[in-house]
Write a structure and sequence with these properties.
Layout: H1 9-26, E1 35-37, E2 62-68, H2 72-83, E3 89-92, H3 101-104, H4 116-119, H5 123-126, H6 137-150, E4 163-169, E5 174-179, E6 184-192, E7 201-203, E8 214-217, H7 223-226, E9 241-245, H8 249-261, E10 264-269, E11 275-276, H9 295-307, H10 320-331, H11 342-367, H12 371-377, E12 389-390, H13 394-397, E13 403-407, E14 416-417, E15 421-424, E16 427-430, E17 433-436, E18 454-455, H14 462-469, E19 485-487, H15 499-520, E20 522-524, H16 528-540, H17 546-550, H18 574-588, E21 594-596
Parallel strand pairs: 2-3, 2-6, 4-18, 6-19, 8-17, 9-10, 9-17, 10-13, 11-12
Antiparallel strand pairs: 1-7, 4-5, 5-6, 14-15, 15-16, 20-21
Helix pairs in contact: 2-6, 2-15, 10-11, 11-12, 15-18
The chain binds NADP nicotinamide-adenine-dinucleotide phosphate.
Length: 602
């Protein structure tokens, strides 16, 4: 890795002005309201193109645990429950198989951009060693299947099924789980594991419904139309004018392959991503020390500590994520409210950030031959404002004669879709196929989507209660008034770029709660006092990062330019400390959430 050139004060001032201008070009008054969910008349964009639902009779039986969602969260909780001897575990999954985001996202070029050897969970247990440093999506999807098979989670699973309501029945102290396939079964415990990037979104612009060409969202790739495979070779596009909207992590991966296959590709960009070196390569067991017992656990722990800003002597993964951890570490002290000299922390971060961003902008100039196109592809914001991207194939795609980059920043994105194409400014781009790489309603799936009512004790509705009082949880995982319900996800706990590691810890915790409740024949339910204490922990050292996000270009990191939502949202001391806290709590305080049953078991 080269050392970036230091940046002079006057250049820093110029960058500040430029970043502000570029942000202003993009902020929209409608903020998050600019998007529409892929439902109702747009439900087509969210339909499953990979599996036709199998006919089956509705279930009216009872299980120990219903797990909503069959992504890595779901199969991990299933695995940990099996280890604790829980027998009747039923995954209910909208897709036709397990895999979650890797079931849905099969677009050409789909890869994990976190190293596979730390991202794929349970490598020590399954004995599997990923073949690439950054696995293709299908390898990851097949690993989720491997885990589900190893943990015997298929027999009782319900696929192509969406949970439509959860209702706590006081008389039996069980949950009644209703689905869109007519099921209505009982579960002693429910775990919500519906993921963060599950709900595709579209720009809420006029005319999408008028487009007469072919159209789909990247998370529902239509190979029947494009031909080819996740490796490319989309022969169906050889005579097609294709448009793609969006240049986030997904756009970066799919655009180079579309460029190779389409007759012509129009890339509609609003904000360019940062695109750093990828350097993907085949990996053998020897490269990662996979002959040693516990190698994957050690590697994953080392990675989490580095990206969480903890001191670590060796960097086993040594990629752009761990490389940028040093940069982000400079940012963290300026988020602390009690920080001594915030201005000097900020100045140190700004200088390091500018050097990194200059390096990334220079990368564009070094690869893209047309100066005007290169200028449009340069990101003008601070590194941590948006999800970083990585690719060695993205910029070269713009040197092809059949690729046109269309900058839509001044019009705040594509303005309109017509019968025949896309309108930006005075120009209509005629298209045969329009693909939306426009991302997801982040964190708004399952019970947080508002489309799955959860009625707890006394009929209280979870989201209604939280709308009045703010979200209330203990550790983000349990909530008073909603017994035996465990919530996986990012709310009120600590997240990480290696999200499967976080999910694995949550799954372990969920299974420990269930095992303890089973052993004592009790219910899991935190008191309001325990929730208050947890909210106080979150509030005590809550970071002050709104000033940072308020200066960032809009995106899902900052509520489309509005800064972060108010109120405590995450454990402030990072994932490593959070996992230690949970571990300690399980040893000493588990009894806090166990409450006496009054009803018999179903
Ligand atoms: P995204 O990051 O939300 O990007 C959506 C893109 O659509 C942005 O470029 C956005 O522009 C653009 N857009 C939205 N509305 C538009 C409009 N009206 N006109 C023009 N452009 C518009 O979604 P994503 O790329 O699917 O990624 C979502 C997340 O999934 C990532 O951040 C990442 O966490 C995860 N992901 C991970 C991997 C992996 O390898 N692990 C791969 C793919 C995705 P603006 O930036 O201007 O809003």
């Amino acid at each position: 890795m080269t050392t970036p050139r230091p940046v002079a004060q006057d250049e820093l001032a110029a960058l500040r002005r430029r970043y502000r201008l570029e942000r202003e070009r993009r902020v929209r008054p409608d903020g998050v309201g600019q998007y529409r969910t892929a439902d109702a008349e747009f439900g087509y964009y969210a339909a499953d193109p990979y599996t036709a639902p199998a006919a089956r009779d509705p279930r009216r039986d009872a299980v120990d645990v219903a797990v909503i969602g069959g992504g890595f969260g779901g199969v991990l909780v299933g695995t940990h429950l099996r280890r604790r001897g829980v027998e009747r575990v039923r995954i209910v999954e909208k897709g036709g198989d397990v895999g979650g985001t890797w079931y849905w996202n099969r677009y050409p070029g789909v890869h994990c951009d976190v190293e596979s050897h730390v991202y794929l969970p349970l490598l020590d247990e399954t004995g599997y060693v990923p073949e690439w440093k950054y696995s293709p999506g299908d390898e990851i999807r097949r690993h989720a299947v491997r885990i589900a098979q190893m943990s015997d989670l298929y027999d009782d699973a319900l696929f192509s099924t969406t949970v439509t309501a959860l209702t706590w029945e006081e008389s039996s102290e069980t949950w009644i789980v209703d689905t869109d396939r007519g099921d209505s079964f009982r579960a002693t415990y429910v775990v919500n594991a519906t993921g963060t990037f599950s709900d595709p979104k579209l720009p809420g612009i006029p005319g999408i419904e008028d487009f007469t060409g072919h159209t789909f969202h990247t998370s529902r790739w239509d190979y029947a139309y494009t031909g080819g495979t996740p490796e490319g070779g989309m022969t169906g596009l050889a005579d097609k004018r294709v448009g793609i909207v969006g240049t986030g992590a997904t756009g970066i991966q799919v655009i180079p392959l579309l460029a190779e296959s389409a007759a012509h590709l129009h890339v509609f960009q609003r904000t360019p991503s940062t695109v750093d070196v990828r350097n993907n390569r085949r990996t053998g067991a020897a490269d990662v020390g996979a002959d040693r017992e516990g190698w994957a656990r050690d590697r994953r722990g080392n990675y989490l500590r580095i990206v969480s800003g903890e001191a670590e002597e060796r960097d086993l993964v040594a990629d752009a994520w761990t490389g940028s951890a040093a940069l982000l570490e400079k940012l963290l002290p300026s988020f602390r409210r009690q920080a001594g000299d915030r201005a000097s922390f900020e100045a140190a971060y700004e200088a390091a950030d500018a050097a990194k961003m200059n390096e990334l902008r220079a990368r564009v100039d070094a690869i893209v031959s047309d100066a005007g196109t290169a200028e449009m592809l340069k990101p003008w914001y601070r590194y941590a404002c948006k999800r970083p991207g990585f690719s060695d194939r993205y910029y070269p795609a713009f040197n092809r004669d059949n690729v046109t980059l269309v900058d839509t920043a001044d019009t705040h994105g594509i303005e309109r879709v017509t019968e025949h194409g896309v309108v930006v400014g005075d120009t209509t781009y005629d298209l045969d196929c329009l693909i939306f790489a426009t991302g997801f309603n982040v964190g708004a799936s399952g019970i947080l989507s508002g489309r799955l009512p959860v009625h707890g004790r006394d009929g209280a509705q979870l989201l209604h209660r939280w709308a009045q009082e703010g979200p209330r949880t203990l550790h983000g995982l349990t909530s008073h008034g909603f017994p035996n319900l465990i919530l996986m996800g990012s709310l009120h706990n600590a997240s990480s770029v290696n999200f499967t590691h976080v999910l694995d810890e949550q799954a372990l915790h969920a299974a420990s709660l269930v095992a303890a409740a089973e052993a004592e024949d009790m219910l899991i339910e935190p008191s309001r006092a325990a929730e208050d204490a947890w909210l106080a922990v979150l509030a005590e050292d809550a970071p002050d990062h709104e000033w940072f996000h308020a200066e960032c270009t809009p995106g899902y990191y900052n509520h489309e330019g509005r800064g972060r939502p108010n109120g405590p949202a995450a454990y402030p001391h990072g994932a490593v400390a959070f996992h230690e806290l949970l571990d300690q709590w399980r040893r000493t305080s588990m009894g806090e959430v166990l409450r006496r049953r009054t009803a018999g078991r179903p």
